[in-house]
Amino acid sequence: MKKTILILGLILIGILLIGCIEQPNLTEEVANCQSLPSDLSIEMNQNNCLTYLATDLKNPQICELIEEPKDNNEFKQLEIDWCYSQVAPAQKESKTCNLISDQYYKDICYSQIAHSTKNVNLCNLISTQDEKDLCYSELAFINNDVNLCNEIEDQSREQLCIYNIDYFQDE
After folding, report:
1. SS3 for 33?
2. Residue 140: which residues within 8 A CB-CB, separation 6 or more?
3. How many Cα atoms occupy the beta-carbon half-sphere of 17 within 13 Å?
4. What is the pLDDT of residues 14-36, one digit of tens each?
5. Is the distance from CB of 33 to CB of 45 less than 8 angstroms?
C-alpha cells in the first residue's frame, strides 16, 4: 500500500513538473513588455509588445493589460480593440471579435476570420456593406462558389465577382 502511494505521488509530481516546464512563464513575458520605456517608438512600445505577445500566445486576456498611452488617454480602448483584432485571427475564433468595441476593427476581425476559415456566415456579422460585399467576394473566389456573388449588394462588384470566378475557373 505504501509502495502504491509512493508511486502515485511520484507520478503526480512528475506530471506537475512537466506542466510547469512546458508552460511559458506568462508573468515574466508580460513583465518584459511592461518594463519597456514608455518613450520608445510606436513599433516597440509596451502596448505593441503586449499585442504581439497576446497574438503569439493566442491569448486575448493579455490585451486587457494594455495601458493608456502617456500622452493621450482616449486611445486606450482603440489599442485594446486593435490587440483583440490581431489575436482573433490567430485563434481563428470569432468570439474574440465580440470583445471589440470599435465597429471598424470588429468588421475587419470578422472578415479576416471568415477568410482564413472560409466561413461565409461570418460575413453576415459585418456591419458595413462595403466590407460585407468584399467578404462575400473573397469567399466566393476562395470557395470557387459563384452563388456567393449573389449575396453582394453592389451590382458592379457582384458582376466582377462572377467574372473573376468564371475567368479563373477556366484556367
Report:
1. helix
2. 146, 147, 148, 149, 161, 165
3. 6
4. 444 444 434 456 677 777 777 77
5. no
- pLDDT score recorded for residue 139: 95
Q: Which residue has the cell 500566445?
A: 57
pLDDT-flagged residues of the chain (< 50): 5-12, 14-23
pLDDT reported for residue 37: 66
* Amino acid identity, position 51: T
Work out whether the CA dihedral 163, 143, 139, 145 comes out positive or negative. Answer: positive
pLDDT for position 150: 96
Question: H helices of 120-154, where?
Answer: 129-143
Q: 26-40 burial string, b = 16+ CB within 10 Å, else e?
A: eeebbeebeeeeeee
Which amino acid, residue 24?
A: P
Identify the helix (H) or strand (E) that includes residue 3.
helix 2-22
Evaluate if pTM is beyond 0.85: no
Query: What are the residue ranges of helices labelled H in the chain?
Result: 2-22, 26-34, 46-57, 76-91, 103-117, 129-143, 155-169
Identify the residue whose cell numbers are 489599442. 79
**Distance of alpha carbon 19 from alpha carbon 160, whole angstroms:** 53
